[in-house]
Amino acid sequence: MPRPNRFYDVIRIGPVQVGSHYDGHGRTKHTAACTAPGCGFSADYRDRSAAELAARTHHCNP
User: Which long-range contacts (CB under 8 A, 24 or more apart) does 30-37 make?
Assistant: First the structure.
């Protein structure tokens, strides 16, 4: 059974939350996920700045 992601350094930009976590190989990944109902946006990035840019430019259409 895989271990759940433990996010740290979580911030909120509008409806999108950006958080960092370690993948199964010990590398740091950054995730941007929209929390609006009906919106299924989420993505992993190698750079924190890329995840924050995605959060700033995301527009929901649920």
Answer: 31/5, 31/7, 32/58, 34/58, 34/60, 36/60, 36/62, 37/62
